[in-house]
Amino acid sequence: MCKNEKTTSVKWRRYSFGKVMNPNTFSFGYSLSGYNYNYRITFKLVEGNDENAFEIRQYSPTRMKILNPRKLVGPKIVKLVLHTDVNDRENNLVDRFIYELYFYLSKYDV
Hints:
The structure is a single chain. The termini are far apart. The chain has a single domain (12-105), classed as Immunoglobulin-like (Sandwich). It is elongated and about 50 Å long. By secondary structure, the chain is mainly β. The chain is built from no helices and nine strands. Helices cover 0% and strands 58% of the residues.
């Protein structure tokens, strides 16, 4: 990591599905704590949502879920990257938390 980069952590998870990942079969919740009202937290999918199969639903300033309102069909591997950015009042990046979600869709029905 670059010395000037604000990435605080990088985490990942792996999920396996049959050939079809039907709508509304995936949910990933994430929340961030430890920051007061002087900071703004934003959640953004920055990679892997080429088919717009995933969306973020934000439930509070610090809590969200990633859902799949649309179907995905394999075989394929999808790497979905979530950035959770913490900005100060001047909109300077203070921290970035990265989550990588890997989806393995088989060529076979399960």
